[in-house]
Amino acid sequence: MNINQILDKIHPINTSSKLKFIESFEEVSLPKNQLIIRSDKVEKSIYFIKKGIARTFSNFEDGEVTIAFGEEGATIISLKSYILNQKGYENIELLEDCELYKISVTKLQNLFSTDIDIANWGRKFAEQELIKAEQRFISNQLGTATERYLELIKKHPTLIQRVPLGLIASYLGITQVSLSRIRANIS
Amino acid sequence: MNINQILDKIHPINTSSKLKFIESFEEVSLPKNQLIIRSDKVEKSIYFIKKGIARTFSNFEDGEVTIAFGEEGATIISLKSYILNQKGYENIELLEDCELYKISVTKLQNLFSTDIDIANWGRKFAEQELIKAEQRFISNQLGTATERYLELIKKHPTLIQRVPLGLIASYLGITQVSLSRIRANIS
DNA sequence: AGAAAAATTTATCAAATGATAAAAAATGAA
DNA sequence: TTCATTTTTTATCATTTGATAAATTTTTCT
Question: Which of A41, B52, B122, B158 is at a distance of 20 to 30 A from A121, taking alpha carbons?
């Protein structure tokens, strides 16, 4: 998915602002398994996925939590860095070879403070992530792990093929062994 | 907490813009137990809490999920209405008599599209809610219900006094009976 | 205060998930 | 292909939480 489509999908921007916006991006290719964002430092850039898939996760005493998967069109972002300029809990790794659009947070913030169309794009971006977060939270509170798994494969059918089961389990908030058992009991 | 403090806490705005912003609010007083936002219609306003406490929840086939509590300074908002202009799953009720600041979404969107300072305030508002949502999600995935309960009383110690236990339980994603058992096992 | 209603606790049994270990299957590198 | 590694499945037992019911305590209303 190209950067023009990605930006438009979030919120349309007038032509001259969008041109300026798009010029601020740089294209990068990075290999599978690369850890592109580390929780122990403030990340200075954000990325959009042209091609490939990434995983955001947090490390804790025992084990890790998968916060999100990002497929084509999604953002690779440390919210703590982007929003609070603080190092945080977010690690992001690439699960496939990826082509990415990269922009520095500083450059982005300059655009926000000088161009009202881009500022409103930035608002819409945060708002849409917020809606997703709320929906995910509700679905997590509500159903059993089985229901959440079925919902996930319905919403993101290709994910199962592209991502190891252990990571899916950690996204669903259960162990890999439990997910395997759930899968056995479905069919 | 007055509207000036509430707005500033989210993101500072220059004096003339803020004056314009604050003039767009209306103060309203509403009684305990009032359902001020209903999931079956698009809500045309958002509110900030000057005094009191509110609860956002969703109704489903069996039971309901408490999405959030809002104390002084918090926002009472149907994200689905505010962001997508759609009716959604969010009901909001007042748990105490409340004094609120009210603004229509239309008025707010006009301010966003004409004033870059207010547009960036709107961006910061969504971003901060997003950070909260992510932190809540992680803490929910990570720990047991007991840990989440302890975390909640540490972060919002007055909440326990102000809110019935059943609602706290539904916020934690467990039944009221389970929370009672957890409390019995702590001390 | 006294009665009714609501909230909280306690108890019992069932269901879902975790922890651990081991086997089986799939993947990747030489 | 073959071997080593990783991933997935299966099995067993322990723990957590749910469902239900009943008892107790607290709150609300008159």
Answer: A41
